[in-house]
Amino acid sequence: MNLPSKLLEDAVDQMASLPGIGRKTALRLVLRLLKRDVDHVRNWAESFTKLREGIKECSRCYSLSDSDICSVCSDQSRDSSTICIVEDIRDILALEATGQYRGLYHVLGGIISPMEGIGPQDLNVEELLQRLRNPQNPVAEVILALSTTMEGDTTAFYLFRKLQHFDVNVSAIARGVAIGDELQYADEVTLGRSIAQRQPYESTLPRS
Amino acid sequence: MNLPSKLLEDAVDQMASLPGIGRKTALRLVLRLLKRDVDHVRNWAESFTKLREGIKECSRCYSLSDSDICSVCSDQSRDSSTICIVEDIRDILALEATGQYRGLYHVLGGIISPMEGIGPQDLNVEELLQRLRNPQNPVAEVILALSTTMEGDTTAFYLFRKLQHFDVNVSAIARGVAIGDELQYADEVTLGRSIAQRQPYESTLPRS
Questions:
Q1: Which helix (H) or strand (E) holds B154?
Q2: Are B105 and B155 in a shared domain?
């Protein structure tokens, strides 16, 4: 695709540098931007620069925030003795949307992935251990809420080993057949785990 | 999705304002941008502002260009007596990629669409007629290369009526079963047109 303009070529290259955006899609998006007026495009572009320059990591849980302490960590009504470990901020959004969790979070900032050269030292693991060592904020339970991929399982096991040196309960989110799914279509690993880890019936009823 | 940061919220909103990008995808893209360093993101964002501020329309064919006359219109080796009418610059890129066309183009900048409130006065139609009136550049043939949607057909017919006042041949690109497609899977409208508008066999052989 030989574009007739260097400016257009640059913009399409930059758009296509985002994951999952090919050059044809990039061109379509850039041509749409071109239909907007100059001020609109300037505002559009500046929102990303402002974000990158202004965004902060919460100094406790490493979630993204406009201030030093994020809104979850600074909420006094939340249970500060429970920490849920997640890979990134999108997992926090998903868990918050359930309305079922009132503890705090800890964002690892990725998972251990030898293929991509990401080791424990690249993640906020030491920062987690420091939180657990802080006598001002005793932690009773750490919940592992990582993906059930090979990398997620590796990371969970690595953290589990580290957490054994601390006086905390370590739990993991429940795995099983999703609510609304039919048994016959569930994959065998999931179904196998859901029968092995069956629960007392009363505990599976919705909370009143 | 309640984002924990106003800056993040703004950037996700702007990204999601692009067509075909939902808020979940927008968040994924924005979080990826955040992993790049500040200068990288600034360059990324500026490429779009620079494009919007610097891009020109070719004053002859209304394609996009860095200069007043685009590279196609300024190419003396091309046949200036043939003008191919297209909806937007992506159609030019597609036709140029075939290597089969050596004439010039005219970009309408859209198609007639009553649903979207786009009429002939919003397109570069008058500019086309002025090109045809220019005695310095006699035009022998105008090729209609618009989509075969209802809007495309309407636009083509509108232009055909206008072009009848000029001493030019008006043609349309061939429609038929795509090369490599099996007959049994072709839709009936396409197959019907391809049998009705059959060609002498010799003319269908690849040019040597």
A1: helix B150-163
A2: yes
